[in-house]
Each structure stands twice: as C-alpha cells, then as structure tokens.
Amino acid sequence: MGIAVEARKVYPYPFQHVVTSYLNKYPTPLEKHVLSVKTVEEKTDPATGVVYRKRIATCNNVIPSFLRRCSILKVSNVYLEEESWLDMKTRVMTLETHCLTWAQYATMKEESVYKECTENSNWTEFTQKGTITITGAGFLNRVLETFAQTFLSHGVKKSISIMETILRERCGCPFS
C-alpha cells in the first residue's frame, strides 16, 4: 500500500544561509538519533557549476523494541544515503534520500528542494515529499507502515524546528 508525507516551509533567511546550515545540520545535540553524516563523494560539474554530493547518515534504530523481535529489524543503526545537487546560479538545491538498511524489505524515499523564494529573494522555500512502502514483512507490513507514517510526520516537523533553531543561532533574527 505505502504512505506519503509532504511538507512545505518558507525560511525567512537567504538561500546561501539555509543551504550552509542544512549541509552542516548534523550531528547536533538537537537530534540525538542522527549519529553522523559522512560525505562519501563530492564533485562539481565544470560546465554548469552544479555541486553533487553523496552523503551517508548513520542513525539510531528508532523502531520500537516490540517490533524488533522480528530478526530483520534487530539492528542498532540505520543507514541513509542522500544525494544532492546544489546549483548556486539558479539558487536551487535538490536532494534525494533513501534507506540503505532495509532496502530488500522497504522502499523509503525523500525528495526535497530548497530554492530562493519567488515572493522574497531573501527567503528560502523548502518542499519535501517522503514515501515508504513496506514489502516482504508479511503481516507486519501495515503495522510498520503505520509506524513509519507517524515517525515521518514527526521527523519532518522536528527537522524543520532544528533548521529554524540553527538558523537563528548562526544568522540571528530572520529577514523580513
């Protein structure tokens, strides 16, 4: 069946500040479940100037312990792969993230875009769509999807809150 979560937020900060804050957001004491983020590839297209990055995030497994009785869920860490394309000329950063840990049982994808806001060039618009489809877990498919939907919805709100806090700390009061 699958679930989807969408979010939109306008940060009242310039694109460069938001992108820099995003790329340096983790690890942070504001989110104890993200243990590390490591850049494994980075290159700039000489023709377009677009910066491509591939990063791997190591996160705590937050699946409730009663569900971890299932052997496939008994892992301490979950690994996410994020690919991003930063185009400073058009002031757009596009990201695609997916889960590496349970790829044979679930498809978890997030597509995010940060771009200069059309209403105010000192602001940055963020949009995100996340989907999760669980397969191969038998009767647990729907239970895990329900947990995932709750977790993703909460995670998006928390991530936005963390960005707002980091932007205030690093950049001061927002632009109007």
Q: What features would you describe in this structure?
A:
With 176 residues, the protein is α+β, with helices and mostly antiparallel strands. The protein has a single domain, classed as Alpha-D-Glucose-1,6-Bisphosphate, Chain A, domain 4 (2-Layer Sandwich). Helices cover 23% and strands 40% of the residues. It contains two helices and seven strands. It has a seven-stranded antiparallel beta sheet. Strand 5 and strand 6 (106-116) form a beta hairpin. The radius of gyration is 17 Å and the shape is globular. The model has no long low-confidence stretch (mean pLDDT 91). This is PRELI domain-containing protein 2. InterPro entries: PRELI/MSF1_dom, Slowmo/Ups. Residues 1-175 form the PRELI/MSF1 domain. One of its GO terms (cellular component) is mitochondrial intermembrane space.
The share of residues in extended strands comes to 35-45%
Q: Quaternary arrangement of the chains shown?
A: single chain
Largest beta sheet: strand ordering: 1-7-6-5-4-3-2
Highest-level CATH class? Alpha Beta
Radius of gyration: 17 Å
Structure summary, number of beta strands:
7
Q: Class by helix and strand content?
A: alpha+beta
Q: Note the overall shape.
A: globular
Main sheet overview: 7 strands, antiparallel
* The CATH H-level homologous superfamily: START domain
Mean pLDDT: 91
Whole-number count of domains: 1
Order of helices and strands: EHEEEEEEH
Q: Examine the secondary-structure arrangement and name the CATH architecture.
A: 2-Layer Sandwich
> What is the terminal-to-terminal distance?
42 Å
In the CATH scheme, what's the topology name? Alpha-D-Glucose-1,6-Bisphosphate, Chain A, domain 4
Protein name: PRELI domain-containing protein 2
Pfam families: PRELI (PF04707)
GO cellular component, one term: mitochondrial intermembrane space
Domain PRELI/MSF1: 1-175
